[in-house]
């Protein structure tokens, strides 16, 4: 019960952090309920990161009050826009799919079914959205908790040391600036940028709930994956396509149909900032679609003033969560804008100038985006040396894996690949919204290239923006492919209902849900899904970084080690998590770092502190009084860096003061040179 109460406290705090700061801004925009529910998350995150940087500049301590005070100021600045939106007319159909959407809507009205009746009532629409959210979110949460083992689990991955310790760094300094977080691994007094939106949000959850950092981090991750992500996909279908309740429901229910996202990004790395940016991508797609114009004429369509505000909010939050979201947005958005320009040009040539009256503004926007995209793609990518990930499949294998939405190095599952092709054909021939095929094709091309292009200049040019890391690139498949699946299923089920009237009767909602569930369950039981799940579980349920004994020792450590003490640690064997879990200063907060020569000396030779005067003086200068011995097992290469820590309990330089299993906390003994001088005096 105590664990359940702790989890509920963290969950409630996470819900507040991800929603309350953005409420004034969203209210000012007068958004429709589902769009508002999705938009409030990037709005809240943007307010949080702006408050963090403002607090850094003004030397204001970081607390939940910072974003709460800034939120109403931003909302008030937009409040005049609320009155204007309230008085304005409904938007007109201006997208390139407008004519086809009208034909599709007429066809739907001419063939009324209980599914269409759902769309006619607020209760029916809410039921469809709730059904999709429960199925999709439930499936994701079951998968995630299964691979994690516990909501309190610590990811056994390399980057997790940084992410957990960065939250503690914010809390200890009372400063959540991205420059402060980046400075955690720099020389004292040096600041450098690191995308810290994830850590800023989690630090607020810790402060509000009073819970431990791993629990707060995991709850934020689960909330984003199980709630925000499915809702975002449904809002994308609801706002930007002609899909009805079945399409919305299918988009949410299939949110976890592929292991590429969110499951892989919740385990590999662990890339929590990138995971956050990907969870926001449906909202980015919503504003990009409205910018290009394919969104159909409906009360859900965003007005130009709403798009003008939401574009920097959604794109800014995603980019500040992780800069690689910019490249993902380009892969999704640039083809969409180019396609919209071509369609509008065709309309203008074929139907007269009136139908293409918005061609020139769109051409201007697209040209501007391209003018920025090309130099950004070439100049903002990592160095070739950092883009070291190699291909994982042949071209044929890559095509099969991509069509079947398989994760990196996972086997092709032919049934889902065939369903994907059939759904794409159905969207092309029978949907009122064909635009989802464009970003889907672009992302699938990127997926094939990332998986199969051999090392060399071409691979670096195409994939170097993501370090040539296939895991990150194929995660975009979920954003682009699930809308096509959902739209295609709706088209196919409507056509089936026309051929078999029994499917269009009162049982049609049940039939639709059964079809979606069958596809979801079959996908989750496929060889591809099993491979992804096994890979994810290995990142959580091992002791590569932190064993159960080591975690217990860290939880008991505050009762033994004074608050102002410094502990010598080896970041590679998990002992540096004493910073995050025990709230004690450590010598090394992460594997990659810049430090004074004295730190490197202690890492190499602390076990000689009693006999080497130089080492002894360095330990005294840095205040190192304790050391953690978690053995030689390490999560990555680099053991030579910590030669002085891995055998310290065997050299007489320290004594054991707390031991759990093989994990030991040691107290440094007085240096012999120091003891000799004291005895002489």
Provide structural commentary.
Keywords: Membrane, Transmembrane, Transmembrane helix. InterPro entries: DUF6541. The chain crosses the membrane at residues 6-27, 34-52, 64-81, 126-145, 215-237, 246-265, 271-292, 304-321, 327-347, 359-380, 412-428, 435-453, 473-493, 500-525. By secondary structure, this protein is mostly helical. It folds into two domains: 2-79 and 97-539, no CATH class; 548-680, no CATH class. It contains 30 helices and five strands. It has helices at residues 2-17, 23-29, 33-58, 65-87, 98-110, 114-120, 122-148, 160-173, 178-182, 197-209, 213-240, 245-253, 272-279, 281-292, 304-321, 324-351, 359-379, 395-403, 414-430, 437-452, 457-463, 470-474, 476-499, 508-524, 527-540, 548-556, 578-582, 597-605, 613-622, 672-680, and strands spanning 566-568, 585-586, 624-629, 654-660, 663-668. Strands 2-1-3-5-4 form a five-stranded mixed beta sheet. Strand 4 (654-660) and strand 5 (663-668) form a beta hairpin. Helix 14 (281-292) runs antiparallel to helix 15, helix 18 packs antiparallel against helix 20 (437-452) and helix 20 packs across helix 23. It is globular.
């Amino acid at each position: 019960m105590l664990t359940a109460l702790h989890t509920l406290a963290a969950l409630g705090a996470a819900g507040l952090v991800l929603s309350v700061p953005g409420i004034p801004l969203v209210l000012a925009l007068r958004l429709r309920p589902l769009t508002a529910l999705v938009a409030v998350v990037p709005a809240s995150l943007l307010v949080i990161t702006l408050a963090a940087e403002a607090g850094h500049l003004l030397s204001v301590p970081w607390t939940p009050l910072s974003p709460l005070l800034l939120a109403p100021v931003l909302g008030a600045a937009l409040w005049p826009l609320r009155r204007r939106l309230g008085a304005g007319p409904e938007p007109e159909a201006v997208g390139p799919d407008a004519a086809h959407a009208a034909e599709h809507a007429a066809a739907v009205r001419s063939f009324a079914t209980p599914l269409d009746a759902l769309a006619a009532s607020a209760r029916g629409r809410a039921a469809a959205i709730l059904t999709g959210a429960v199925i999709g979110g439930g499936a994701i949460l079951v998968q995630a908790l299964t691979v994690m083992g516990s909501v309190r689990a610590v990811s056994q991955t390399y980057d997790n040391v940084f992410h957990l310790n960065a939250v503690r760094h914010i809390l200890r300094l009372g400063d959540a600036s991205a420059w402060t977080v980046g400075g955690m691994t720099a020389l004292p007094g040096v600041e450098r940028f690191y995308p810290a939106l994830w850590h800023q949000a989690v630090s607020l959850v810790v402060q509000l709930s009073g819970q431990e950092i791993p629990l707060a981090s995991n709850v934020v991750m689960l909330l984003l994956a199980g709630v925000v992500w499915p809702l975002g996909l449904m809002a994308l279908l609801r706002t930007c396509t002609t899909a009805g309740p079945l399409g919305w429901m299918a988009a949410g229910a299939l949110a976890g149909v592929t292991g590429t996202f969110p499951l892989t990004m919740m385990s590999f790395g662990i890339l929590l900032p990138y995971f956050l940016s990907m969870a926001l991508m449906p909202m980015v797609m919503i504003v990009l679609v409205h910018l290009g114009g394919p969104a159909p004429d409906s009360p859900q369509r965003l007005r130009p003033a709403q798009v003008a505000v939401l574009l920097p909010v959604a794109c800014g939050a995603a980019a500040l969560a992780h800069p690689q979201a910019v490249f993902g947005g380009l892969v999704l958005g640039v083809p969409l804008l180019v396609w919209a320009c071509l369609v509008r040009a065709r309309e203008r040539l074929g139907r007269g100038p009136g139908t293409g009256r918005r061609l020139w503004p769109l051409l201007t926007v697209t040209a501007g985006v391209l003018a920025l995209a090309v130099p950004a793609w070439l100049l903002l990518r990592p160095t070739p040396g950092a883009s070291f990930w190699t291909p994982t499949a042949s071209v044929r294998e890559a095509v099969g894996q991509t069509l079947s939405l398989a994760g990196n190095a996972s086997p092709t599952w032919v049934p889902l690949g065939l369903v994907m092709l059939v759904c794409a054909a159905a969207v092309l021939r029978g949907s009122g919204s064909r635009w989802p095929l464009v970003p889907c094709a672009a992302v699938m091309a990127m997926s094939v290239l990332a998986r199969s292009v051999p090392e060399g200049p071409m691979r670096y040019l195409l994939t170097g923006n993501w370090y040539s890391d296939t895991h990150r690139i194929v995660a975009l498949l979920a954003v682009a492919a699930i809308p096509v699946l959902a739209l295609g299923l709706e088209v196919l089920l409507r056509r089936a209902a026309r051929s078999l009237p029994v499917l269009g009767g009162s049982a049609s909602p049940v039939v639709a849900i059964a079809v979606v569930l069958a596809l979801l369950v079959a996908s989750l039981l496929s060889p591809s899904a099993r491979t992804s799940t096994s890979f994810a579980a290995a990142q959580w349920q091992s002791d590569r970084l932190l064993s159960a004994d080591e975690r217990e020792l860290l939880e008991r450590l505050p009762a033994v080690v004074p608050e102002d003490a410094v502990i010598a640690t080896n970041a590679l064997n998990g002992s540096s998590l004493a910073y995050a879990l025990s709230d004690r200063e450590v010598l090394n907060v992460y594997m990659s770092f810049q430090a004074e020569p004295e730190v490197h000396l202690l890492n190499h030779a602390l076990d000689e502190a009693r006999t080497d005067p130089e080492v002894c003086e360095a330990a005294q200068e840095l205040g190192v009084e304790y050391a953690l011995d978690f053995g030689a097992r390490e999560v990555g290469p680099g053991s030579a860096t910590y030669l002085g820590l891995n055998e310290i309990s065997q050299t007489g330089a320290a004594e054991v003061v707390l031991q759990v299993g093989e994990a030991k906390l040691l107290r440094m003994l007085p240096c012999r040179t120091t003891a000799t001088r004291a005895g002489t005096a």
